Amino acid sequence: MRRDSRLSVALHVLLHMEDMGPVVTSEAMGRLMKANPVVVRRTMAGLREAGILTSVKGHGGGWSLARPLDEVTLGDVYEALGTPALFSIGPRDESPGCLVEQAVNTALEAALDEAAALLLRKLRNTTVAELGRGVRRRHARAAKQRARPRA
């Protein structure tokens, strides 16, 4: 089953944009992400409509951050992408006549609703800047390991 990776792609793009400079083209981002620039543009368009990015057409144009990443939550990005389905599991039949399947659906829906609420709360309470700080910590640890003398 294919996973919806748009949230991952959008977060990846935002974190790289912060480091790449004030204006980034979708072609440059596509090369970096090993993705078609059209796919990158589609993802970024949703972020523009949500006020997370701005864009300028033409020579010297491209995409820019519209607000600091410490003001953008993972939930904001998720919502900008149109709130894709969080889970790929669900009931076999939405309106079953079978009492057993009705009980299964009730249990699944309750568990999925609880899990979705927890996940959305976490997304809304985590900023993209926090992810960036985590990336910088990973880079620092990796650099320390590379700098250690080999025995």
UniProtKB/TrEMBL annotation:
InterPro entries named among the record's database cross-references: Tscrpt_reg_Rrf2, WH-like_DNA-bd_sf, WH_DNA-bd_sf
Cellular component, GO annotation: cytosol
Name of protein: Rrf2 family transcriptional regulator
GO molecular function, one term: DNA-binding transcription factor activity
Gene3D superfamilies, per the entry: Winged helix-like DNA-binding domain superfamily/Winged helix DNA-binding domain
